[in-house]
């Protein structure tokens, strides 16, 4: 272990390794505590937190599909006050960083939760711009460059910690969205969020999700995610947390070679509760195998 350096720095925040969890797949860490030593993770990215409790969507809202899963959970969460009172003290028992994913249905809601959490004992914010903008008929904030820049710049006024902006892949040009986020004040970017997908039960002649359409994630989306991380890393000069179909160390190395500083493990947690630790160990094994002393030696090496 001593001959390799897996640590990374994102916006001045030192992480012992590049591995965190994808928001919405790990709760606050409690659910996985009996399987995973949270001290081994570079950071824990918690489930989306809103200013006030969100009920979420109707069931069924999760479905397996070939190569991954569909979900339309709807960012159900107990709200910022509960999070500060219960989840932050729990996570601070461990030697890991805390990344808080924040969500809202309007710019005002985003700013309200950012202000509530502005003095909380956390390390980084992650802004979920895939939320439906109720003021604009439900279209996601993250699909229009003008709206991306606006929501990021407004939220930035209330955050006293570095702000990661999580990008939606459901756009024509991901680099255009990335540039808009950075122009608005994003300190770092994370990508990708889920692709939009749908499954139909041909026997019942109904969609398998109550919401009809949901977010598609898992191994099948990895080539799309790697491509987008690669493109964004060439377009902007901020740290990137790559995610989308990461199941093992080799997957993580792909993202790092594409230009990611950190990586997040999401859907794999549902199939394998040990996935995050296996990714950490897989990265270490790869580095030893190829004599890599520091991840910076391979980061972004694909021209």
Question: What this model shows, in words?
Answer:
- With 303 residues, the chain is α/β, with parallel strands linked by helices.
- It has one domain (8-56, 74-195, 217-297): TIM Barrel, CATH 3.20.20.
- Helix content is 29%, strand content 21%.
- It is built from eight helices and 16 strands.
- It has helices at residues 80-91, 107-116, 145-156, 174-184, 222-235, 249-258, 268-271, 275-289; strands at 8-10, 13-15, 19-21, 43-49, 62-65, 68-71, 97-102, 124-128, 163-166, 188-191, 195-198, 200-201, 206-207, 213-217, 240-243, 262-265.
- It has an eight-stranded parallel beta sheet with strand order 3-16-15-10-9-8-7-4.
- Helix 2 links the parallel strand 7 and strand 8.
- Helix 6 crosses helix 8 (275-289).
- The longest helix has 15 residues, at 275-289.
- It is globular.
- The two termini are 30 Å apart.
Q: How many individual helices?
A: 8
**In percent, how much strand structure appears in the residues?**
15-25%
Biggest sheet architecture: 8 strands, parallel
What share of the residues lie within helices? 25-40%
Report the mean per-residue pLDDT as an integer.
Answer: 94
Instruction: Please trace the helix and strand order, writing H or E for each element.
Output: EEEEEEHEHEHEHEEEEEHEHEHH
Brief write-up:
With about 300 residues, the chain is α/β, with parallel strands linked by helices. Helix content is about 30%, strand content about 20%.
Break the fold down into its secondary structure elements and pairings.
Layout: E1 8-10, E2 13-15, E3 19-21, E4 43-49, E5 62-65, E6 68-71, H1 80-91, E7 97-102, H2 107-116, E8 124-128, H3 145-156, E9 163-166, H4 174-184, E10 188-191, E11 195-198, E12 200-201, E13 206-207, E14 213-217, H5 222-235, E15 240-243, H6 249-258, E16 262-265, H7 268-271, H8 275-289
Parallel strand pairs: 3-16, 4-7, 7-8, 8-9, 9-10, 10-15, 15-16
Antiparallel strand pairs: 1-2, 5-6, 6-14, 11-14, 12-13
């Amino acid at each position: 272990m001593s001959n390799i350096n897996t640590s990374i720095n994102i916006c001045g925040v030192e992480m012992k390794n590049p591995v965190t969890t994808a928001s919405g797949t790990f709760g606050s860490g409690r659910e996985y505590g009996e399987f995973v030593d949270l001290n081994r993770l570079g950071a824990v990215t918690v489930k989306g937190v809103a200013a006030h409790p969100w009920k979420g969507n109707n069931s069924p809202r999760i479905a397996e599909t070939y190569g991954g899963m569909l979900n339309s959970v709807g960012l159900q969460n107990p709200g910022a006050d509960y999070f500060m009172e219960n989840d932050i003290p729990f996570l601070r028992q461990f030697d890991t960083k805390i990344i808080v994913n924040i969500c809202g249905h309007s710019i005002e809601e985003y700013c309200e939760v950012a202000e509530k959490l502005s003095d909380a004992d956390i390390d980084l914010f992650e802004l979920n711009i895939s939320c439906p903008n109720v003021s604009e008929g439900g279209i996601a904030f993250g699909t229009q460059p003008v709206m991306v820049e606006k929501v990021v710049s407004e939220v930035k006024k209330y955050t006293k910690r570095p702000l990661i902006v999580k990008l939606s892949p459901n756009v024509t040009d991901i680099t255009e969205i990335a540039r808009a986020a950075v122009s608005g004040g994003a300190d770092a970017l994370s990508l990708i969020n889920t692709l939009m997908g749908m499954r139909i039960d041909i026997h019942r002649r109904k969609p398998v999700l109550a919401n009809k359409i949901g977010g598609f994630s898992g191994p099948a989306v990895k080539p799309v995610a790697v491509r987008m991380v690669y493109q964004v890393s060439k377009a902007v000069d901020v740290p990137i947390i790559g995610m989308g179909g990461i199941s093992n160390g080799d997957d993580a190395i792909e993202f790092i070679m594409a230009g990611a500083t950190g990586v997040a493990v999401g859907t794999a947690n549902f199939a394998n509760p040990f996935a995050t630790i296996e990714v950490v160990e897989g990265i270490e094994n790869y580095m030893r195998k190829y004599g890599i002393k520091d991840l910076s030696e391979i980061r972004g090496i694909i021209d």
